[in-house]
Structure formats: C-alpha cells, structure tokens
Amino acid sequence: MKYSKLFITGCDKNTRWMLPWFLENFKKHNDTPIEVFNFDDTGTEGWFNKPNAMLAAADMADKVIWLDTDCEVRADLSPMFDKIQKNKLSMVLDRPWTKRRPERGNWYNSGVVGYTGKPPVLTEWHRYITQGLTNEVGDQEVLNWMLGGDPLREMVHINELPHIYNTLRLDLIDNTAPKKPHIMHWTGSVGKLKIKDMMDNG
C-alpha cells in the first residue's frame, strides 16, 4: 500500500536512545504514519544515510517529510504537506549557520525536509554523498556545497518553509526563534544534553 502522506526518520546505535522520546512527542500531536529507518547495517555514518532513506520513502508515499530524531515535535505537522512543491526540497532557512558562515550563502537545515517524488536535487544529493564527491562533514554541508551560495540555484531547488517548522537551538541563543515553534530542533552535543534532561525529568 502506498501512503498519500508519510513522515520518516532514521537512527543508528548512536542515536537510537532518542527514538522513544521523539516518537512520544510526535504521536502526541500527529496521527500521520511514520516510518523509522535503521541505519546500523549500512556501514555509513548516520547522517549520510538520510538521502538514501528519502529516496526509498519516495516509493512508499506521494508526499514525504523527513524529521531528525533530535527534533522535538510540539504540534500537528500535517499542514506542512500542503506546502511541499514538486521538484524541490522544502526546508527551513538555517539562520544561525547563514549568519556564521555567510561566505557560503544561505544554509538550509536538513533536519526537516519535505518533498514529493524524487526531485533532481535529491538524487544529486544522494550521488554526491554515496560517491564521496566532496569532503564535507555532514549531509547539510554537502547540500550547501552543491547549491554553492547561488540564489538562482536555491530558487530552483529549494522551497523555503516557515521558521516554526524547524526552530534551532542556536535560534534561542541568537534570539531569532519564533514564539511558538511547531518543531524545536535540539542540535549538537548541547542539544543532546537537553534531550537527555527532558527524558530523565519529564
């Protein structure tokens, strides 16, 4: 059976500890199906498995949204599916990284990615990662490198989502966070400590 709408996530032995917390928050607010990909058997670093999982999920549903497991879901996310555009990746502008690395143009945070079908930019993203065509340290960095800070390429390949759908930990530090994030993304080692504290203390 092919879904009309599907959320996906993925984890390996290093990130699986967050999965119960992630799923509890997600299911508290959402009844759209969600699929969890197991990255332990791929022999690849966890974050580099993301585009491969996204391509696989394109055959499972008409519209798909990837969520990192360090995303705290705080609201119904179903309206996001109406914002997905054909042949583009729907993502939130990463304001903190755009501010910190302005020489590389706009950054788009890959913790939340919506799409339909197999956009050309997704297949290229997958190819650049699997063939090791860059020396970038993570999937978001590879995508940023591909876009090359070119506003025209960004316009062709990226559909910008509202900030509420991926508010970053650094947004809190920079005072750029919206008032009521639907997704709070606890990035980095400091973010993982915050998640552990929430899991331990409720």
Key terms for this structure?
202 residues; alpha/beta; six-stranded mixed beta sheet
Write structural notes for this entry.
The longest helix is centred in the C-terminal third of the chain and has 14 residues, at 188-201. 39% of the residues are buried. This protein has 202 residues and is an alpha/beta fold. It has eight helices and nine strands. The protein has one domain (3-201): Spore Coat Polysaccharide Biosynthesis Protein SpsA, Chain A. It starts with a strand and ends with a helix. Helix content is 36%, strand content 23%. The protein has helices at 19-29, 50-58, 95-100, 120-130, 139-147, 151-157, 169-174, 188-201; strands at residues 3-11, 34-38, 61-67, 71-73, 89-93, 108-116, 158-160, 167-168, 183-185. A six-stranded mixed beta sheet has the order 2-1-3-6-5-7. A three-stranded mixed beta sheet has the order 4-9-8.
Number of strands: 9
Overall shape: it is globular
Strand order of the largest sheet: 2-1-3-6-5-7
Highest-level CATH class:
Alpha Beta
Tell me the CATH topology: Spore Coat Polysaccharide Biosynthesis Protein SpsA, Chain A
Global structural class: alpha/beta
CATH homologous superfamily annotation: Spore Coat Polysaccharide Biosynthesis Protein SpsA, Chain A
**Mean of pLDDT:** 95
| Biggest sheet features | 6 strands, mixed
Number of helices: 8
Report the span from N to C terminus.
37 Å
Radius of gyration: 16 Å
CATH structural architecture: Alpha-Beta Complex
Bin the strand percentage.
15-25%
Helix content: 25-40%
Outline the low-pLDDT stretches.
none
Number of domains: 1
| Helix/strand order | EHEHEEEHEHHHEEHEH
